[in-house]
Amino acid sequence: MLFSDTRISIRFGGKMEAYLDYNATTPLDPLVAEEMRPFLSGEFGNASSFHKKGQAARNAVELARERIADFLEIEPGDLIFTSGGTEADNLALKGTLERQASTTNRRHLVVSTIEHQAVLHPAQTLEKNGFKVSYVPVTGDGLVDLDALKSVVTDETALVSIMHANNETGVIQPIEEIARIAHAKGALFHTDAVQSFGKIPINIEKTGIDLMTISAHKICGPKGAGALYIRKGLKIKAALHGGHQEKNIRPGTENVAAIAGFGRAAELAAKNQKEESAGVLRLRDKLFSGLKESISGIQLNGDLGKRVTNTLNISFEGLDGETLLMNLDLKNIYVSTGSACTAGSVEPSHVLIAMGLSDKLARAAIRFSLGRFTTEREIDYALAEIPSIVERLRKASTEKNADRHSLPSSF
Ligand code: PLP
Predict the structure, then answer these.
(1) Who contacts 237 (Cβ-Cβ below 8 Å, separation ≥6)?
(2) Coil, helix or strand at residue 348
């Protein structure tokens, strides 16, 4: 257990459950909620107003900017607040490609096949709008194929956008090397660091990052706040047009409470990163060893060593991940599959398919992700329940298959 019981009990409310879906979202840290509270009541001013109420809101926004900048060792002015990771990714891709196309002859974007939809979908939109987009493959371990990357980056590449840690497997990409490959051809480098920010140290300067996306709700902050780091002097095109907020790049009245919470969450992440990561690793290893010991036919997806400490992606042979997820949910064990609902049918995770998994194994995958408030009790509970659920579902599936095979031929 990493933190005190009082803070944990806020979430448990007495019933036994195990929240193992931190990569989807994290519980709001009570200390973050405390920071946000004044801006949800008395301090309701608009950060652009000149009076005292407005200035209180402005101060909160700028304090948050400083706290995040301190953590990342950058200048506060290099951060643009957005409504979250999705908006920051869109701004990075569209803003860079559109700006570069109007000032240079670079109209080419490079992304990997395992990016989050917040990168893949704007990339596809840019492609529809006449930009060239290359999708770089990954190895079976979930790491971007650097030779393939080198072969597609050219003098016409405007931007290489490759995520830092993958949201489904937790695998960490070699972004320093990737930035070098982009820069060697004069291209810019953006990284979606939504799943690594607060979990592992990021040295923006040393890594050679030109643009970087972060989001508050993955670090025990509120939903609906994120930011885009833009290297000083780098110009991108605004996606929205309106007031003068966020240097005209992201106009619109600031979500003061969420931004204030984001700042506090970043400060707490900076303080807790090392201890939290070690504690989470111990619990994750306990979960993994426990599952391996008690369940046969399981496969870990993605390199075990090169990943953030909180994530496990496991395929349970012979099972359907969605069915397993629903059965775990009945026991208040909360996990994810990487599947996406597209046009009414459930598609297996594009990340696992890109890593070369068969359709069947990709559909049999479950993501377990831990975080600040995960307790030993939650892991013990998950380990006590999961093996029997898996056994029951496998048995039911075998019986169903046997029944199907023994049906008279007229059926
Ligand atoms: N990028 C990655 C890697 C993510 O995991 C997520 C959210 O799951 C996003 C972007 C989107 O961030 P947000 O939910 O803040 O829009």
Answers:
(1) 94, 95, 96, 98, 99, 102
(2) coil
Residue listed under structure tokens 């019933």: 15
* Closest residue by Cα to residue 383 from 276, 295, 321: 295
Tokens at 301, concatenated:
């997806």
Q: What is the Cα–Cα distance from 113 to 355, expressed in whole angstroms?
A: 9
**110 CA → ligand 1 middle, Å:** 19
Q: Which of 330, 341, 402, 407 is catalytic?
A: 341
CB 321 within 8 A of CB 365: yes
CB neighbours of residue 135 within 10 Å: 18
Q: Which ligand 1 atom lies nearest to the CA of residue 223?
A: 15
The pLDDT of residue 276 is above 60: yes
Q: How many CB atoms lie within 10 A of CB 367?
A: 27
Nearest to 276 by CA among 244, 229, 308, 320: 308
pLDDT at 225 over 60: yes
Q: Is 220 an annotated catalytic residue?
A: no
Which residue reads 């060239």 in tokens?
A: 132
Q: Is 0.85 topped by the overall pTM?
A: yes
The Å distance, Cα 118 to ligand 1 centre, comes to 7
Q: Distance between CA atoms of 329 and 379, rounded to whole angstroms? A: 15
pLDDT of 340:
75
- What is the phi/psi pair of residue 226, to 5°? -155, -175
List the residue whose alpha carbon is closest to atom 9 of ligand 1: 85
Cα 318 → chain centroid: 28
Ligand 1 pocket test target in 89, 117, 218, 349 with most atoms within 8 Å of CB: 218
